[in-house]
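User: C-alpha cells for MbtH protein, please.
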Amino acid sequence: MSTAHAEDRYVVVVNHEEQYSIWFADRALPAGWTATAAHGSRQECLDHIEQVWTDMTPRSVRASR
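Assistant: Done. Predicted C-alpha cells:
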C-alpha cells in the first residue's frame, strides 16, 4: 500500500555517476546524492529526468570508452 499523497513534493537528485532519481523534498538526501534545481510533483520530476537523462550509461563507463 502506497503512503504517497498528491501533495507530496519531490526533488530530482543526481549521483557522482550522473545517474538520476527522485527524492522527497522534505527529507535529508541520501549519501552520495546531490539535489538539482528541478523539483515538483512526482510526475513532473520523472518527466524532467526523461528529458535530461538521455544516456543511462554511468559516467565512469562513458569516460573509459
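User: Anything notable?

Assistant: DSSP finds two helices and three strands in the chain.
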